[in-house]
Design goal:
The complex is a heterodimer. In chain A, a hairpin with a 4-residue loop joins β6 and β7. By secondary structure, chain A is of the alpha+beta class. Chain A is elongated, with a radius of gyration of 30 Å. The N terminus of chain B is likely disordered. In chain B, about 65% of the residues lie in helices and about 0% in strands. The two termini of chain B are about 25 Å apart. Chain B has a single domain, classed as Up-down Bundle (Cytochrome C Oxidase, Chain A). In chain B, α7 runs antiparallel to α9 and α13 runs parallel beside α16. Classes of the chains: A alpha+beta, B mainly alpha. Chains A and B meet through α2, α3, β7 and β9 of A and α4, α10, α11, α12 and α13 of B. Chain B: Belongs to the heme-copper respiratory oxidase family. Chain B: Its main location: membrane. Chain B: GO terms for molecular function: cytochrome-c oxidase activity; heme binding; metal ion binding; oxidoreductase activity.
Chain lengths: ~375, ~525
């Protein structure tokens, strides 16, 4: 008994110590309440079931541990011989059943809330890609579509343990999803390749992004701020490096941001439609090349022997122009050559193709206009 | 019946086993095959465990240290596949082979040659699966659930070998199940009615039906994958008119009953051990049988609770939520019955009982988190996080695996004729018990705090719990070497075991000498009285 008491004190001490050191940031231990009505009711549901389980656990384990301590052969106890009691067995079938019904009611209510459909102020299409998210603002009133990719922004040096890690290690993105506060935002979630899952715990939203299916969800966030999440479905090599950041702003700020974005999109549309000259394209293409291609193919177009092919004088950059476009748009399977068709604008795609055909003494003299890329893409879709 | 008398004639000609390697290659003896299954399962347990330790070593600290994400995914996939199909399932089949004939008073399994075949195709299946690690493009890297289209359109070429390996494992399981059903139906000793069968036999009978029902579904789903990959069909390819969600429906129609395949025999084991060491009959035998059958039935209608986030309609979510919650009722009945068996018993705590008690407590904790996961709205937050990892490891490690260990300690004297080293057994138990909890309990916390599963690297807020979890995993892993030592010592030395080494043990297996003779029950024993 003395020993038992000592153990009890010791475990109580450990428990208090653990709670006091970690108690201040509950998110390390438990689900957070989040910032939407739904995330809060999910949290309440979670805690309700948790405490029900704890209660049942205390009763069952209590009786079990009591028996294990008191009904031991070493204490000279003789075993009883009962092995049946219809009444008891009925009770412990019916009582849990009643508890389940009590839990099922609030659960069904919350579920119905999540599934409630209604008109939304903002609609956003979310498309999962290996391994990035695309956000497209769907709107009937504007011809200029706002769409952009959101990728991991944590530097590779941090992942490789070469430099110190930031507080939001692996949870930073190049460009967050921006939504307004206190407005219903409808989310249409789909995928371009494999199944991903769009999950932001504070919003209480997790929905799979599945190719060929558009899933619908919604959120209404009450507090402005940055909320972070991650892809929650194994989607290949970089599954762990596919964070989600939602930047929730006051409605006016959101409108300003959206207007600026729409303006950019409109300018881009104008650029696509304008008549380009070879020199303009080459100049722009050089910049695009410097940003996206230079790491592998090198500034002198010579590539890296044995790893990345040279472009200078290559069959691709001096051969059939359509093949060249196709490779840049679709990538090359099984190699490091990515598909840039959806990452870059038509203008940039046209520019970089033109640049590659006219740099480093390739001097093909031909060019691809942004509108050619548009045509090429629609031809591929058919 | 003629088959049985034929067996008898056969047995009288030679009583001992053949010598050398051929004994094991060509054996049709249920005890030899049981032993083969158990050793195979243990070696797979160590292999799958090593893969788990690679995972935990990488997750010891944030950042990428040891392996690349690609290899990390291969490790998670291989760990899951090997533990499910290579460790847990064959271990239970091994126990069934050893114990079911002895428990029902049969001379052997009903279909001994098929028994040999169903074991010997397994090493080939797993050799093929393991060989994918050395193939160009690497091993399967899409998780043990191998969701399409990641496993079809985007998979490494080795996926074809994986499919073939799965087919072989499935064939082995189905043959094993047919054999068990045939044995239980035809070879029970006179007087052994169904309601007098030991619960281990009952749970295995029900499990065998589950296997026959769902293994073909698994075979179907991998065949559909094969067609998609090599023959231009589009079952799971949206661009060709198929649906990736179809894959999940078919997979989980197999996958959910599968998780009960891995736990029902454990219920049987624990229902044998607790009464033996409480020196009191099992409480509620009849309700145990009905509860097992209800769990098996319910397991077929709850598969979509693995898919709450794929976007099924509200009514669908409600149905699957309610059906899933219902499983808590028969499972609760089982737990309450075990506790009632202990209550007012006269308990001793030899190693099998320690494992059985730990089973009841820790499996129940896994059951609680399972109930939490059943609540669909909450599942939106839990799904695909470490909370799920913690949940299914609680039911599979201190659940299924602990019950296998309990069974091994309980029947080891019968198998080897020697008592195992009780002190070492207890050391093994306590190290495993502590290791398992240090490993998996903190995973509840990181899961609730938002750490997705199957990621090779994580945010800093998850660092401390992951480190604790990894340390626990290494402790648990290393302590299994103690188990190996105990079994080795017991096979080759140790005090001579009496026919019934446990005071409160019940059942026909204890009526034969230890070690059990190579051929038992050449004349069927008579059964009367209770179960």
């Amino acid at each position: 008994m003395q020993k038992l008491k000592a153990w009890l004190w010791l475990s109580a001490g450990v428990l208090i110590w653990v709670l006091s050191t970690h108690g201040h940031s509950e998110s390390r231990w438990n689900m957070t309440e989040g910032v939407t009505e739904i995330s809060r009711s999910v949290y309440r549901l979670h805690m309700l079931i948790f405490w029900v389980c704890v209660g049942i656990g205390i009763i069952v384990f209590g009786i079990m541990i009591y028996s294990m301590l008191m009904h031991r052969k070493s204490r000279g106890v003789q075993a009883a011989n009962f092995h049946e009691s219809t009444l008891v067995e009925i009770i412990w079938t019916v009582v849990p059943f009643a508890i389940l019904i009590a839990m099922a009611i609030p659960a069904a209510r919350t579920l119905a809330q999540i599934y409630e459909r209604g008109p939304a102020e903002v609609t956003i299409e979310i498309v999962g890609y290996q391994w990035k998210w695309q956000y497209r603002y769907v709107s009937d009133t504007n011809d200029a579509k706002v769409a952009y990719f959101s990728t991991l922004a944590t530097p590779p040096e941090q992942i490789a343990n070469k430099v110190a890690k930031d507080e939001n290690y692996l949870l930073e993105v190049s460009e967050p999803l921006v939504i307004p506060t206190n407005q219903r935002v409808r989310l249409l979630i789909t995928s371009n390749d494999v199944i991903h899952s769009w999950w932001v715990p504070a919003l209480g939203v997790k929905k799979d992004a599945i190719p060929g299916i558009v899933n619908e969800s919604w959120t209404k966030v009450e507090q402005a701020g940055l909320y972070r999440g991650q892809c929650a479905e194994l989607c290949g090599k970089d599954h762990g490096f596919m964070p989600i950041v939602v930047d929730v702003r006051e409605p006016e700020e959101f409108q300003t941001w959206l207007a600026a974005k729409q303006d950019d999109a409109r300018k881009m549309a104008e650029l696509t439609n304008k008549t380009w000259t070879l020199t303009e394209l080459v100049d722009r293409g050089e910049k695009v090349y410097g940003q996206f291609c230079v790491a592998c193919h090198q500034a002198n177009g010579m590539g890296v022997e044995g790893a990345f092919p040279a472009l200078k004088g290559s069959a691709v950059a001096t051969g059939d122009i359509n093949k060249h476009i196709a490779i840049i748009l679709n990538g090359v399977n099984g190699t490091a050559m990515q598909a840039f068709g959806k990452q870059l604008s038509e203008v940039d795609l046209a520019a970089v193709v033109t640049y590659e055909r006219n740099a480093w003494g390739n001097n093909m003299g031909d060019m691809v206009a942004p509108l050619d890329i548009v045509k090429f893409k629609s031809g591929q879709q058919e | 019946m003629t088959a049985i008398s034929h067996e008898h004639d056969h047995h009288e000609e030679h009583h001992g086993p053949a010598k050398g390697l051929t004994r094991w290659l060509f054996t049709t003896n249920h005890k030899d095959i049981g032993t083969l299954y158990l050793w195979f399962s243990f070696s797979m347990f160590l292999l799958g465990g090593t893969f788990a330790l690679v995972i935990r070593a990488e997750l010891f600290q944030p950042g990428l240290q040891l392996v690349q994400p690609e290899f990390f995914n291969q490790m998670t996939t291989m760990h899951g596949l090997i533990m499910v199909f290579g460790a847990v399932m064959p271990a239970f089949v091994g126990l069934a082979n050893w114990m079911i004939p002895m428990m029902i008073g049969a001379p052997d399994m009903a279909l001994p040659r098929m028994n040999n075949l169903s074991f010997w195709i397994l090493p080939f299946a797993f050799a093929m699966l393991a060989s994918t690690l050395f193939m160009e493009g690497g091993a399967p890297n899409f998780g043990w659930t191998f969701y399409a289209p990641l496993s079809t359109t985007y998979a490494p070429p080795s996926v074809t070998y994986f499919i073939f390996a799965i087919h072989i494992m499935g064939a082995s399981s189905i043959m094993g199940a047919i054999n068990i059903i045939a044995t239980i139906f035809n070879l029970r000793a006179p007087g052994m009615t169904f309601m007098k069968m030991p619960l281990f036999v009952w749970t295995w009978l029900i499990t065998a039906y589950l296997l026959i029902a769902v293994m073909p579904v698994l075979a179907g789903v991998v065949t559909m994958m094969l067609m998609d990959i090599h023959f231009g069909t589009s079952f799971f390819n949206a661009a060709g008119g198929g649906s990736p969600v179809l894959f999940q429906h078919v997979f989980w129609f197999f996958g959910h009953p599968e998780v009960y395949i891995m736990i029902l025999p454990a219920f049987g084991v624990v229902s044998a051990i607790i009464p033996a060491f409480a020196r009191k009959p099992l409480f509620g035998y009849t309700s145990m049988v009905y509860a097992t059958a209800s769990i098996a039935f319910l397991s077929f209608i709850v598969w979509a609770h693995h898919m709450f986030t794929v976007g099924i309609p509200l009514v669908g979510e409600l149905f699957f939520m309610y059906a899933t919650m219902l499983i808590a009722v028969p499972t609760g009945v089982k737990v309450f019955n075990w506790v009632a068996t202990m209550f007012r018993g006269s308990m001793t705590f030899e190693t099998p009982m320690l494992f059985a008690c730990a089973f009841v407590i820790l499996f129940t904790i896994g059951g609680f988190s399972g109930l939490m996961l059943a609540i669909a709205p909450a599942d939106f937050q839990y799904h695909d996080t470490y909370f799920v990892v913690a949940h299914f490891h609680y039911v599979l490690v201190p659940g299924a695996v602990f019950s296998i260990m309990a069974a091994t300690y309980y029947w080891l004297p019968k198998w080897t004729g020697h008592m195992y080293d009780e002190t070492l057994g207890k050391v093994h138990f306590w190290l495993s018990f502590i290791g398992v909890n240090i490993t998996f309990f903190p995973q509840h916390f990181v899961g609730l705090a938002g750490m997705p599963r199957r990621i090779p690297d994580y945010n800093l807020q998850f660092a401390d719990f992951n480190m604790i979890s990894s340390m626990g995993a290494f402790l648990f892993g290393i302590s299994q070497l103690v188990f190996l030592l105990v079994v080795f010592k017991c096979v080759f030395s140790g005090e001579k075991a009496p026919a019934k080494p446990w005071e409160g043990a019940e059942g026909l297996e204890w009526t034969v000498p230890s070690p059990a003779p190579y051929h038992t029950f050449t004349t069927p024993p008579k059964v009367d009285g209770g179960h």
